[in-house]
């Protein structure tokens, strides 16, 4: 069974702030500020469109940014999504 991820409620995250090549996000429920590197902010944005698997997120990112899929891109996206879930920014279902 493929893992589906869900974005946080928009009210749970502060407006992202770009900071020297990184993105700062405050997660209100945990009270933690996270410093995110690419592609984590882009994944959060793509996931805000609705629940998705890593393959769907890759499709959304490719469409939004005009990218061509690389062989290992889905695995990289899956790893980043697992990391975002581990720190509580997204939910695994």
Rg (C-alpha, Å): 13 Å
> Can you summarize the main beta sheet?
3 strands, antiparallel
Number of domains: 1
What sort of overall outline do the alpha carbons produce when their principal axes are compared? globular
From the 3D coordinates, which CATH architecture would you assign? Orthogonal Bundle
The count of strands amounts to: 5
**Alpha plus pi helix count:** 3
Query: Might you state the CATH topology name?
Result: Arc Repressor Mutant, subunit A
> How are the strands of the largest sheet arranged?
2-3-4
Poorly predicted regions are: none
Characterise this structure.
The chain has 93 residues and is an alpha+beta fold. The protein has a single domain (5-92), classed as Arc Repressor Mutant, subunit A, CATH 1.10.10. The chain is 37% helix and 19% strand. The protein contains three helices and five strands, in the order ββββαααβ. The chain has helices spanning 40-47, 54-65, 73-86, and strands at 5-6, 17-19, 22-27, 32-36, 91-92. The strands form two sheets. The chain has a three-stranded antiparallel β-sheet, with no helix packed on it. Strands 1-5 form a two-stranded antiparallel ribbon.
């Amino acid at each position: 069974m493929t893992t589906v991820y869900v974005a946080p409620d928009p009210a749970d995250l502060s407006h992202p702030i770009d900071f020297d090549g990184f993105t700062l996000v405050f997660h209100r429920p945990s009270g933690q500020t996270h410093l995110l590197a690419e592609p984590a902010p882009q994944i959060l944005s793509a996931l805000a469109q609705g629940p998705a698997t890593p393959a769907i997120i890759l499709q959304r990112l490719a469409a939004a940014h005009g990218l061509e899929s690389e062989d290992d891109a889905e695995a990289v996206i899956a790893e980043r999504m697992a990391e975002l879930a581990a720190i509580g920014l997204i939910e695994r279902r």
